[in-house]
Design brief:
alpha/beta; 3 domains; Rossmann fold; Elongation Factor Tu (Ef-tu), domain 3; Globin-like; 12 helices; six-stranded antiparallel β-sheet; single chain; six-stranded parallel β-sheet; 403 residues; globular
């Protein structure tokens, strides 16, 4: 495996940028089709993000293009590399899996580009792949080792039992998971997610990421899951999983989490089920008796979809400078302003500028992509620096190798 990239390899990879711009999506779709011919490889991944209409091939195509464009300046891809490594730890991607992806990727390049994919190009891309793979493997090994060595840590998949199931709204249900061995669990960082391995009758093994919606307690995890209209996993959890059901989980992962040091105001901004990591952060801030002001701003459709309203209010009432504001886009007749919600309509950048300390706060955002795209733009225009805007997408983010 190559530890360095020579100038010729870099030049060849950069020269393929136009081909990737034109054919990148075809290459990644072909790559996944080849890779998933092996059931063992197929079952490693979250299949809801794959396929002809899936979002992962598009994300991977964009990421491969970004890698080619920046192969001589990989420092700009540092955040993306960390995101991939965290996802791989959740999915339990191991060093022995990388050769399968390499073979599928190079074969896909040849399939799609035909004679244009010369031996020289394939050799260069093979070296480029393994250069990045070595970086990822090193980081992932460090994460696996660090998490396994922490109190309550583990390697691989661990069996958990559902010990509590609670309906939070018409569309969101919470599940408290405790390991069946009775031993402690590693303390997650507020905002991280848990990856579940679900064995559902009639389905291949399913992998799904769910944000942990409670602060760390060393004993259990809580996830709060929205039922998606066509969601196999979320539907099974809502309707078939019950107290006593066993699921498998890997160690908590994710690069989106609350800073260890909170020395300036914090704004927790969420839309819909994006509140789940915010609850973990809010609980942690209450436990820490944070001295900085905390603004919890949440938008949802109406009272039927509003999860954990009372819990959030109880947390905010425990002392400290905690301010809760909820927006209902389309309140029902039964929803009373001032009792069930605070503002009607959508959260706006103007409201944030008028009601939160935009010039001084750290912003944590979670919600659908359109929600995040809008508010990252609004906050940037308002003068909030990039290092104070932290966010997590639903679904796959741009990834360079596989996820």
């Amino acid at each position: 495996m190559s530890r360095t990239l020579n100038d010729q390899t870099i030049a060849i990879v950069k020269a393929t940028v136009p081909a990737l711009q034109a054919h990148g999506l075809d290459i990644t779709r072909t790559m996944y089709a080849r890779l998933f011919q092996d059931p063992a490889m197929r079952d490693l991944f979250n299949q809801s993000h794959h396929g002809e209409t899936g979002s992962q091939p598009k994300a991977l195509a964009n990421a491969v293009l970004a890698y080619a464009q920046n192969i001589d300046n990989l420092g700009v891809l540092g955040d993306a590399v960390e995101r991939i490594a965290q996802k791989h730890v959740g999915l339990q991607i191991l060093p022995e899996h990388y050769p399968f992806v390499a073979d599928a990727l190079l074969a896909a390049i040849k399939d799609v580009l035909g004679n244009a994919a010369t031996d020289e190009i394939l050799t260069a891309w093979g070296e480029a792949y393994w250069f990045l793979a070595d970086i990822l493997i090193g980081r992932e090994t460090m994460l696996y080792d660090t998490l396994a060595e922490q109190p309550g840590g583990w390697r691989g998949w661990r069996d958990f039992r559902v010990v509590e199931k609670r309906r939070e709204s018409d569309v969101i249900t919470s599940f408290v998971l405790r390991p069946i061995d009775g031993a402690p669990v590693v303390r997650h960082r507020p905002g991280q997610y848990l990856t579940l391995w679900l064995d559902i009758p009639g389905q291949h093994p399913l992998k799904r990421n769910y944000s942990i919606s409670a602060a760390a307690n060393g004993e259990s995890y809580r996830i709060s899951v929205k039922q998606e209209p066509q969601g196999v996993a979320s539907g099974w959890l809502h309707h078939a999983a019950d107290v006593g059901t066993i699921v498998k989980a890997s160690v908590p992962a994710g690069e989106f989490f609350l800073s260890d040091t909170v020395d300036r105001p914090v704004v927790l901004l969420s839309g819909g089920v994006g509140l789940t990591p915010m609850l973990s952060m809010l609980e942690a801030l209450v436990q820490q008796r944070a001295s900085a002001a905390v603004y919890y701003v949440h938008g949802t459709l109406n009272g039927s979809t509003h999860a954990m309203r009372d819990h959030v209010r109880e947390l905010a009432a425990q002392g400290g400078d905690f301010r809760v504001t909820t927006f209902y886009e389309q309140p029902r007749t039964a929803d009373a302003q001032g009792r069930d919600y605070d503002e009607q309509g959508l959260i706006t950048g103007e409201w944030l500028r008028d009601h939160t300390p935009v010039a001084a706060a750290d912003f944590y955002l979670c919600g659908p992509k359109a929600f995040l795209r809008h508010f990252v733009g609004e906050l940037t225009l308002a003068g909030v620096s990039g290092d104070r805007i932290h966010y997590e997408f639903f679904g796959p983010a741009d990834e360079l190798i596989a996820a």
